[in-house]
Amino acid sequence: MQLFEHPNDATGGDAVNLPSTPHAGPRGGAPDASGESYSNWVRDVLRAVADEPDAAVLFDSTIREPTELLAGVARRAFEGGVTDRFESVFAGGNRFVVEAVAARYGVPRESVICTTGATSAMAMAIRAYVAPGDHVIVETPCFDLLPGLAEEAGAMVSYLPRRAPDFDVDLAELAQLMRPDTKLVLLTHLHNPSGAMLGDGVVAALGELATKTGVPILIDEVYGDFAGPRRAAAALSPDIISVGSLAKAQGLFALKCGWAIASPARVQQMLAANSHGDLDLSKLSHAVAALVLEDIAPFDNHWRATLEATRPVVERHVGAMVDAGLLVGDVPVAGCMCFPRVVGVADTRALADWFWREHRIVVAPGEFFGLAGHIRIGFGGEAEQLDRGLERLHRALSLYRAS
Distance (Å, rounded) from C-alpha 375 to C-alpha 11? Predict the structure, then answer.
């Protein structure tokens, strides 16, 4: 792992070790699996910025945690006794979570599997449908976890380009990528890293393709609530699997509560392939999650209020950088992230390194997602901090261009 070797000239402080970002890999725009993973990079970033109170952190794509709201639910659950939602999760998860997810996303309870998070739900689906040597199709640019999970299962991975500036899914291109040994397709909605939406018409067409080919399509909908309210994609086709969680839109990563939604037949296939179920389910956190899901309006109001404050800020600053010829790309209509292209910069890994070294600014370079030349900007935090950070980013990018 390479480290920054230069002092922070902007502040005169000592060098801070932070991993350089990986090169785009040789697999048609895929993240380089031999390099530093995005998750490990984030961990190192968080350790570094903890010692840098003036750091401008602009990469996070999660709504800030509604800590007081969460604490209030937990207090009410136990202050007058023990809530009846506090029950064993060993026999298939918390039934109140299952019922609340089913009601929220318009499916029968038999279509819901309770998991510790979306990652666990995806892993269960992959175990059900993918054997070593099978073929899996993954969108690109993408969150590197998606191909990583497929490769850990021994799959051969091909990539479906979602091309800028719209990052749409090309159904004809997806059909052409299908092979006799294709067992699963992995997509996201909202798309990570661009924030692009999958419309209901596209989802319906994806379901028709899945039925025609016999290849299930898994859609990671952890950001889907930003485009809601709407039914889960799995409700539109028996051959689509939806996964979701409370971690992203609601900011409730502390609860480790996720789910898979699929037709009852596919649920049974997934359970049969995961005979032990999800052994990491927490009785305590899922009891609180059940209460959150049963009265989720305050948490939805939290993310809506956050974005009502931050979206105008990011639109103003990104628009100014576009007008200045520094960036290309619009802020998507939903969600808390955007993925603009940096004009004239092919190596956004080097740019991100320079941002940190010289200006203590953190953005996620596109190389982590398989599309060099772009940066991912998140805006799920405090509007004032975002305003200051994006102003610094504009100045720094202007300096970089001038140099």
Answer: 24
Residues 362/59, Cβ–Cβ less than 8 Å? yes
- Give the residue carrying structure tokens 């909908």: 221
**What are the two backbone dihedrals, phi and then psi, of residue 192, each rounded to the nearest 5 degrees?**
-105, 110
3-state SS, residue 237? coil
Max CA pair span of the chain: 64
Other Cβ atoms within 10 Å of 301 Cβ, number: 12
Is 38-65+299-402 a CATH 3.30.565.10 domain?
Answer: no
Report d(CA 79, CA 121) in Å as an integer: 32
What is the residue extent of each domain of the chain?
Answer: 38-65+299-402, 85-295
Asked if the bond preceding 229 is cis, omega within 30° of 0, the reply is yes
State residue 29's pLDDT score.
56
- Give me the pLDDT at residue 87, please: 97
**What fold, for 85-295?**
Aspartate Aminotransferase; domain 2 (3.40.640)
118-176 tens-digit pLDDT: 999 999 999 999 999 999 999 999 999 999 999 999 999 999 999 999 999 999 999 99
Residue 193: count other Cβ atoms within 10 Å of its Cβ: 28
Q: What is the pLDDT of residue 25?
A: 38
Asked if residue 146 has a cis previous peptide bond (ω within 30° of 0), the answer is no
Q: What would the two tokens of residue 379 be?
A: 């805006």
The Cα angle at residue 286 between residues 283 and 290, in degrees rounded to 5: 135
Contact of 336 with 378, CB cutoff 8 Å: yes
185-224 residue pLDDT tens: 999 999 999 999 999 999 999 999 999 999 999 999 999 9
**258-261 vs 112-115, strand pairing mode:** antiparallel
Give 325's DSSP letter.
T
Is 361 within 8 Å of 49 (Cβ atoms)?
no
Following CA atoms 167, 171, 175, 177 in sequence, which dihedral angle do they give, to the nearest 10 degrees?
Answer: -10
Note whether 306 and 64 are within 8 A (CB). Answer: yes
Closest CA to 262 of 282, 241, 278, 286: 241
Intra-chain end-to-end CA distance of the chain, in Å: 27
Neighbours of 20 (CB within 10 A): 19
pLDDT over threshold 60, residue 184: yes
Matching residue, tokens 């296939």: 269
